[in-house]
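[09:14] KT: can someone run the structure on this one? pasting the chain below
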Amino acid sequence: MKKLVEGFVQQLRHAIEIGESASVTFSGPKYKNVVIAGMGSSGIGGSIIKSYVADKLSVPLLLSNGYNIPAFIGPSTLFIASSFSGNTEETISAVREAMEAEASVCFVTSGGELLRIAQENSMPHIVIPDDSGQPRASLGYSLVQQLYLLYYAELLDDTFKVELAQSINLLEEQIGSIKVQASALASTFRGKLPVLYASDLFEPVAVRLQHQLNENAKQLAHVNVFPEMNHNEIMGWQYPEKLFEQLVVLYIRTSYDHQRVKLRMDLSKAIFERKEQSVMEIEAVGATFMEQVLYLVHLFDWVSVYLAELNKVDPETIDNINYLKGELSKV
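[09:31] RB: done, structure tokens below
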């Protein structure tokens, strides 16, 4: 897994090459909405894109993370299905419903049933490499190809291409600092329950870290966002008192945080400190949203592999997930 994390920058470069050379055309009507379907590591790219395009798309973009799709989906919907293996049962189910609703369905996958459906029905699709064998190690591929699908559908302009190139340069410049910070965070997280707080715009990044800690380091983590947590979770910082000894709080700060969110984060610190809880902070680096997201993703991926080493676990094994898939296949 460490080699796969090390190859993230090269993956982004390769993903851009794939996107640029993709032969994808859309012949449907002008789209009134976009839905991205995907689960787990194949779905987190859609969550990041939803935040990225919030101020760019003139139509709403929603996520579909399950077997069924919303009732509004129809002929004016661009439906993007993302699955590394192409065999994710929830995404396959959602695709079939989207096809029945006559949505314009397109795909990002390395193969499997979804690629068969795409080819059999002459639907737009971009094939990504399956070399890693790990969906969570292919975020660069799935994220970039979803951006290209939006671009080819004439919903997104080409600004993202410049921002991706800038992000690659940033990661190359910052890799030394990234590894130092990641190692320190991993040491702090060891034997603790990380409580990860970010602004709502950067929730996908916090969730990505949670996923990586779960799968790579085999360790639980908790995520919530400002300002929402100030309306509920903040009251939970009273009991059970013994739990607070096992927590470590991480703030994910960015230049895109709303001024009131920054104030809320500052004020909430006092509440955590009453439980003798210090707050660690990570500040995103980069001039654009894309740069800051990819910087944090890469940093947190390193945290997860370093923590896996400290926990003495194999970051590539996913025994519990494989067990569930095996049992589900019997029914």
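[09:33] KT: thanks! Residues 196 and 223 are 5 Å apart (CA to CA).
[09:34] RB: yep, looked fine to me
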